[in-house]
Write a structure and sequence with these properties.
Chain lengths: 373, 373, 373, 373
């Protein structure tokens, strides 16, 4: 009925942190911090309207918040691409890779692998997409040739709506005490204190991504399961292998720098049942994520809004795959893709080509990738 | 000093139309209309702040405004692509064209042919580009893994700022009486009354564009002229031929559906002298435009904000090339491109690949094309 | 489920106008225009998502569209306040009126007569309200005193969301042929061709309104009806008189320049049942509107989104009271007010004080008026 | 030339914080933090484009950043209005105060004490003000009465542009370690960790402000100085007394809950020399601020963008008056006011009436106050 932009839920979810009333205390006592994190966890549970990252039912932390966060007890930076790197796995796209990839252009057929952008698409949490045409037309007539023209005026969380490409400033981990920006770390160890700015990220912005042109492999789970997968249902390695077999593809043919894509059927809910679409999703978990890392791939993608399973079968985890692949390994992610045309043509291997809109300091990019066969 | 978004100039430029005070008059007398158009012409002169289309010093019309507009005395629609077509020259991109194009991938090198998006780029008229990071970070921590994330919130004339791709709902011609939306016509004869809407164009939106993957030919004027070209300086066919010769390219090798691109040197002003950059530009005129039509090309592009010469040597004309190529022939246009890296490598022929962000009802698209060699 | 910002309904509602395919015809034949208006009428019926003005079920015009529109067969301008006036009924607020009004300050009690602004309020059609806090905090720390600060970044149809004050550039009448901007007339005869601009209205903007400080009279219909009034239920003069009697007020005490306000109970749906709230409303019709004109009042107001009855009992009319009071008489209108506190204290007469936010070229203003007793 | 929204300066100003490369350190060593603050201080110096709070040339902190910030060595909360209070000095506006105030309405004359809102007004740092009219008109025609309408679509830092009213979530103090949100404290001790949220402040939002209706006293410095005051020139108590004497006003007549306003002449630069206007300003310092606290006033105001002197004569301080009055005492502040009409009529005492637009979670409000005499 309403559009999920309710303020109430947020308020509820975020005010439970106790106000420490001691004045000059530079380090709050551990007890307070434990309380705070508990609040944060509860917030996540209540926060259905708090962006997509609040959708998973996450159990509040019972552990000492001063301890390192789960899955991150060890330092994960600097990145394998170098301590100064801001390009992550887009570094895979070398001339040799481009030439290898171009060999897959045989039919000359181009597939649009994403959705159109419009206000009626499923939008997570409080994100919006608004478009207005200023004037009707916007300007003119000018000259004796009487030219007129239209512009369009758009307001939106531009890199995080619709078909969206996550870049390296999007996901991080709070390694330190609650509220400590100097220990909220992103790819290559960069911290919120270091690069987050009201007017754009000062590091890890999507303008640093190299154009992607690589071999894409599609894993279609629908024939394997005989149905659309459901929210919370994890794609296992056994599933991946079953799909590859069904598609007559060899795991060995998936090479470093390639992209791996998953079709779950969840995308059929797009604009048909946005509420269900947003409520969770099937997807990969840490098992497949670790295989992606071993395989040294460039990116993942799916017909879902997060690629990974939501909620995670381990209810204490929130978006563990995002954190593992993007934050720790710089592996990129393309969400809300559309594979129906490829599948109709039984084309499971294709050239994936996508260049993010280089918005300085942006967290991601809009735009549909193409698949060329 | 101020940012060019002054309201005054606009007011000045647009209030000269006489208010016909007769109540039920459906057709204003010709004298009034003549006045109106004069107003519109003066508006264009004064309208340095009225969007890029007011930048050319245009002489007010002396002719009878009831007569058809200059250059448009004949009906130009339906389009060669069919009366219902909304894809224009993107229809050139067939499988055969893709296969022909892919043959040009030899080095495996990818060039970014556009600029990054940021508030400091030259923005025409009153257009804006604003980016804010909501929160710092936007959300989290969530889960025992304590995930945090950033979004970005952008407000802008998204298809008409920075490196920009003009689509078919952008440019039209006022064929009828002043203010008559039913005779303001765009590609394929569509009218403002017909498809312009406050919430997005109902036809000719950029979502109808097919992904572009074609052969690109770059014409570099700087070596020909021995300098950056200047505002108001037109690229002639003789210039084009001189450049092709200098680059050891054959005019005959430019085939239907290809893209033609012009480097004028004007792009060196980008972010270095935005005021001069916006004040006019060198570019092609009707001579080259007609050659583009004869050659049956897919698109034009340049390192300038309009590709065509501004002001036009014929001072009565405003953006005559836009109108001729886009409105009448559905030939597309990519502005504010960046060719320096191609030129440094002496690569004048390349695969041009670009897929517009499919914003429903949008007039254009952001995003940088790539050149692959 | 979705948020009513669907593009589909709009498309449906607006594409029925036939594209006249004759090329140079400057005046379409009457038959085509008749078709067009029929389309416009149907659009209104389908346009539940097309802004609040599409909510009323309006019967398409069967009459000749070349004829003047219903209720507007005669010229209504210039206004009684002079042909150049842009202040309308705010001209009532003279020093004498202010002194007369100030006498009503007896208790020293101030009532807020409007709602807070937030994304969860009922928003009509495709209008939005979005607020983001850039950064967290937005800036700092600065200086050895380590100052930090927050800003807020808002995108919205600012004068037409929540508690809203309609000004004179908001409502007009299409007096001429379909699509003819030169005959779409607003207060004092100003036309869309004359003052509508993509970057702000060039006349009749809300900055021209004088600060309002006048005597307010509240008519509470709930005790008269013994219940909340329903959508489509018109407040008659008999109702007004019954309410005044019940409240021990005299019709004669309502003086020129005063404000008249209506409580229908419909406001109790605010944020509780936004869908019903937006689906229509009770309110005044032309009978009371004509009394408002005779009484020479400054403004009307109500606890509803349009003050007037929607749908109008005459199904061929769309927002006839808006058009009659605002467009023809310059009488102002304040929507989505909140009277519960006044009513709880049985205060039906009060000082109404409101100064619109002077947004140059704006159609209305946000802000809550106060009632002082 | 450009509009001050350059990204470069920001980058420069904010990247000097050293990336602590130690992996799992939950508490960075003091040495690092000292470095960080030094960076922050330098950032402020460079940050001419970083919002108004970066305009003052501030010397980087040499002191130990672990020590309390200058001027804030003692705990200042809870507020005198109670530990739960969110209304601050607007609590002064009681019925008794309203009645006392209303006695000053004698002439019945209303003065608008602020500026119109438009893109050409001086905007600090990267703040923007954009207005678009969607469509032309936005909607219609509807019904046989053929109604049409306009909306306006605005994007802006709405409470912090133009004539602006600062509320209690705007200014705070970083009491703890750099980047520690749990010790960035605002009015009543609320912390960034506690109430700052990407979608609106969860406490101290401007919706908590009570409508202001109080006695205003204007201090005109121009006749005292015989000229416009200059940037960095502080208004002393001696100045205030000289002005009061010149205006035949008694200091004793300034009562608790009243408002005090300063005219410096700086406002004459508005839209005439925006660059100079933004470069600094004359205003009150801590001496007058302390008098305002002693006098127990409701608010301050001026014809400048900060009311207080910028840069502060003590170059280590950034906006010390904001911090002292607003953050510590909940005394409100109205910026960019306009007093010329009052001064022309020699009216130095008036009813100040203003009700903020109650934007939930907003940091301030647009809108012009009125002065009634």
């Amino acid at each position: 009925m309403t559009d999920g932009r309710e303020r109430e839920a947020v308020t509820e979810s975020s005010t439970s942190s106790p106000a420490t009333t001691s004045s000059s205390s530079k380090t709050s006592p551990p007890a307070d911090r434990r309380e705070f994190l508990k609040g944060a966890g509860l917030g996540a549970v209540a926060g259905a309207s708090y962006g997509k990252f609040g959708l998973a039912p996450i159990t509040p932390a019972a552990a000492d918040p001063i301890a390192p966060p789960k899955l991150s007890t060890e330092k994960w930076w600097p990145s394998k691409w170098g301590a100064d790197d801001q390009a992550g796995a887009s570094n895979h796209i070398t001339p040799a890779k481009v030439i290898e990839t171009a060999k897959w252009i045989k039919d000359g057929k181009i597939y649009k692998l994403g959705h159109d952008y419009e206000a009626s698409m499923p939008l997570f949490g409080k994100r919006v997409f608004t478009l207005r045409i200023p004037g009707g037309p916007t300007g003119g007539p000018f000259g004796e040739n009487r030219l007129v023209y239209h512009d369009e005026f758009v307001t939106t969380e531009i890199g995080q709506v619709g078909t969206q490409f996550d870049y390296l400033g999007h996901i991080g981990i709070a390694m330190g005490a609650p509220g400590d920006k100097a220990e909220m770390r992103f790819y290559n160890g960069h911290t919120v204190a270091d690069f987050s700015d009201a007017y754009g990220l000062k590091k890890l912005g999507v303008e640093h991504c190299k154009p992607l042109f690589t071999r894409g492999h599609l894993v279609d789970m629908v024939p394997v399961k005989g149905r659309m997968m459901e929210a919370g249902e994890e794609i296992s390695m056994a599933d991946v292998r079953a799909a590859l077999a069904k598609q007559n593809m060899s795991e060995g043919d998936i090479r470093p720098g390639d992209g791996i894509f998953f079709n779950t059927g969840w995308g059929t809910l797009w604009k048909k049942n946005n509420d269900k679409f947003n409520s969770g999703e099937p997807g990969i978990g840490l098992e497949v994520a670790n295989w992606v890392i071993e395989k040294d791939l460039c990116l993942t993608g799916a017909d879902t809004w997060a690629v990974e399973v939501v909620p995670n079968p381990d209810k204490t985890l929130a978006f563990a795959v995002h954190m593992t692949l993007q934050t720790k390994h710089g592996i990129l992610n393309h969400e809300n893709l559309f594979f129906d045309d490829l599948i109709a043509d039984k084309k499971y291997q294709f050239v994936y080509s996508f260049t993010p809109v280089p918005i300085v300091g942006g967290t991601g990019s809009p735009g549909v990738p193409i698949g060329i066969t």
